[in-house]
Design goal:
Length: about 110
């Protein structure tokens, strides 16, 4: 699989871009979100794990944050176990409700 060195992708018109952005058409919008190299990696992991889908993250903290934003709603509380990794302990001390308000549950 060739490595995608692009960070942005061009489309003929705004409607074509909107279809990709809304997931109606396959494609990529911005390299930090998705790109052909990461898509190939995620597809290979999906096949290896015999899973419906797979996703990847640039760091463990990104994976943890994504999981918490998915499972928690504004106002929810969670009790982490003792011995948390330092970045997660710091994340926990900051205002959780402010972070969660930016990501409303759908």
């Amino acid at each position: 699989v060739p490595v995608a060195l692009s960070v942005s992708y061009g489309y003929d018109d705004l409607d074509e871009w909107a279809d990709v952005a809304q997931g109606k058409t396959r494609g990529h919008i911005y390299g930090r979100n998705t790109n052909p190299t990461v898509a190939a990696f995620e597809e290979k992991v999906r096949i290896l794990e015999n899973a419906e889908a797979a996703t990847s993250f640039a760091s463990g903290m990104a994976a943890i944050s994504n999981t918490l934003f998915t499972l928690l709603s504004p106002g929810d509380r969670w009790k982490p176990l003792p011995g948390l990794p330092r970045p997660l302990a710091t994340w926990n001390r900051r205002s959780r409700s402010e972070r969660l308000q930016a990501f409303p549950r759908r």
